[in-house]
Amino acid sequence: RNEQACEIIQEVRQKNGDCRVSKMAAKSQLSRRHLSRLVNREVGLSAKLFARIMRFDRAIQLARVRPKLRLIEIASAAGYADPAHMPREFTALGGIRPSDIQSERGAMIW
Q1: Nearest-5° Cα angle at 49, 48 to 54
Q2: What confidence tens digit (pLDDT) does each residue in 48-73 have?
Q3: Which residue of 83, 89, 105, 108 has the fewest C-beta atoms within 10 A of its own C-beta?
Q4: Rounded to an integer, what distance in angstroms lies between the CA atom of residue 82 and that of residue 84?
Q5: Which among 103, 48, 49 has a CA at the least distance from the CA of 71?
Q6: pTM here?
Q7: Would you put residue 37 in left (φ > 0), alpha (ψ -120 to 50) or beta?
Q8: Whole-Å CA distances, 43 to 51, 68, 90, 99
Q9: Around Cβ 56, how many Cβ atoms within 10 Å?
């Protein structure tokens, strides 16, 4: 195991994916490409995709534990810079719409 990669992965998890690869690379004194390679060796995903998945998971968890939250509130709390990004992420990563997580269909999926 690469200690530096594990620290980066832990930071992404702690921040629920709400972080930029370029900032993590600068903080770690690595190039973005090298950081991504290190993360890929540990989790099998690029650093950016890993962060996207963590943010997506955070949004799903928020919708589960706080079903009264509006989608815009979920997007903000999950770390989406722009609420318009969340629907694209849900489609790309989960094949669903954000509104599906608050419906019966979402309950069946998640």
Answers
A1: 100
A2: 999 999 999 999 999 888 888 999 99
A3: 108
A4: 5
A5: 103
A6: 0.87
A7: alpha
A8: 11, 33, 21, 29
A9: 20
